[in-house]
Amino acid sequence: MVRVGVHVSIAKSIDKAVDRAREKGCDTFQIFSRNPRGWKIKELTAIEAKRFTEKVEHSGIFPPVDHMPYLPNLAAPTDDVYKQSVASLIEELRRSDALHIPYLVTHLGSHRGYGKAGGFQRIGDAINTAFSEVDNRVMLLLENTAGTKNSMGGTFEDIRHITNRIEHKERIGICFDTCHGFAAGYELRTEESLKATMQHFDEVIGLEHLKLIHLNDAKAGLNSRLDRHEHIGLGYIGEDGFRAILKDERFRELPMILETPVDNRRGDSENIQKVRELAD
Fold first, then answer.
1. Which of 49, 166, 222, 275 is in the most buried spot, having the most CB atoms within 10 Å?
2. Could you tell me the CATH number of the domain that includes residue 55?
3. Are the beta carbons of 144 and 153 closer than 8 angstroms?
4. Active site residues
5. Residue 191: which domain range?
């Protein structure tokens, strides 16, 4: 059995995310713990956290996953955005802990044209600062990117440059997004190519650090550098590609979060069902 779920809304009350995850048939789920499109943070009360954690415990759904908001950029060259981004990371680590969420996923941001070297330093400093401010059991998961212009983390080597700068390496892991990896040039569509890609991952980063999969098909081709998610099996990775991915024990053992579209072709529940079908 694979553990598969989707990103769900926290609208009206954060504990309702658990209800929505159950309704969609999730084994795991992901949330934004607050409004992802603004800097302003609404305080998380003890009552809200208690309701959420109790519902998760009773649901049997595990693990819940938190995702950093859209605005923070840990590689930002400008001090105002950078300081806000670090503050956001600190707050999100605290909120994840209060909600008993074991994983916090973060994008690695954009260097905005001033170069990867500076971006690596900014990201490393941001994470080290956050970890020095917040000491808890939440693991920060670095997510690979699609290799879009100025983005950080499009290659396994980029991610290693970042992890090498982290003082408390035991507090970080990796979230591998299949759409992003494919768009960045990593072939996943056959057992042979998947094996080669994951062997490369192991040599550069180490498979023991892989903790979560963002399972998404791609609307654009291999090495396209376009971050466009598609329904499972309907994109360029395709059903055969996902059969290979879901057959691989290194993936099957990990929680998988879908960030696929919701449209007149399919909804979340249908994509979850498609994953289970292909896994079987």
1. 275
2. 3.20.20.150
3. yes
4. 37, 67, 70, 107, 143, 177, 180, 214, 227, 229, 259
5. 4-279
